[in-house]
Amino acid sequence: MTASIPGDELDAVFGDRRAVGRVEALPHTAVAAATAGLYRVHGDGRTAIVKVLAPARDAPGFWRPGANETHWYYWRREAEAYRSGLLATLGGGLRAPRCDRVFERADGTVALWLEDLRGAAAPAWPLTRYTLAARHLGRAQGEFLAGRPLPTQPWLSRGWLRAYVDRRDRVAGSRSGAGDASALEDPAAWRHPALATWFPDPPTAALRAMRADQPWFLDVLDRLPPTVCHLDLHPANLFDGGYGTTAAIDWSFVGIGALGEDAGNLVPDSVFDFHVAPHHLVDLYDTVVAGYDAGLRDAGWSGPPETVRLAMSAAMAAKYVWIAPALARAVIEDRDQLNGRPTAETVAAWAPTVRFLLDRADEARVLTPLVGE
Fold this sequence. Notes:
By secondary structure, the protein is an alpha+beta fold.
């Protein structure tokens, strides 16, 4: 074994383990508990990425994977998606990394041998490249809206967003006794200088209404056309795939979701994880809407023009009700860090997004009767 890579895998992929020059461990997000290791293998004039999946049944926190294939974070889902061939048949310019081998290891883990993507990652993209990526996404997902049969494998996630928000609410409730939403009712949070600068007139009632309408936003998504979704589409998972394609990595949540659900995830996550400056948020939203709608229509979808904005807005309003409470709780508890950065820095990035999310909730309420949902 070379740096946690079994010799028989090296033999199978490179023909001879002696052809391997070195193996480097790559950093990976600690919260992704099903990822037990990530490596770049150099050998025979080429490189490969090895991603090791593990059950991690005792992993703490929100991102604990599950052993059942219906679990929202089934630990083997990405391996099954590659093994099934589904990810190799995506269309419209959206693609996954090529998977050369899937190895079942004796210790119960699974190793994915993947293409080493070398194109520019989305955090380095101009906004115009997001337009193209959204168009590729729309074309790929539009194929399933225009007649391509949806896959039916039991390991595909279903109702993922509902499971996500339920899990987040339960974790928040276990921490505070009343859930993170209680922080919104604390006047001390809104008087704190970190928030008072952004919210001289605290939007408590609007935030309370968005949370109360969360089940309704989820119901709206349930009534929209279903398609194959990535369900973790954010800049760290997107690359220029070469030859006019966009490549998406980390298909741990892949499943059946609503039109617009992925596009709706991409926009706020780009700001929350500090990939796009908050003052570009509205421009990013508009460019993703335009690209995604164009891609759907390229694929043959002919739904009402308001549908994409409705879907994206409902997805954002349903998923991100926790952002404002998280900000409020961080300042109440005088935390040094939030989301891996100094709290003041995170507040400066996230606070404008709170207003944006409230606008999306209003947009979803206005557009629903126009689309007939």
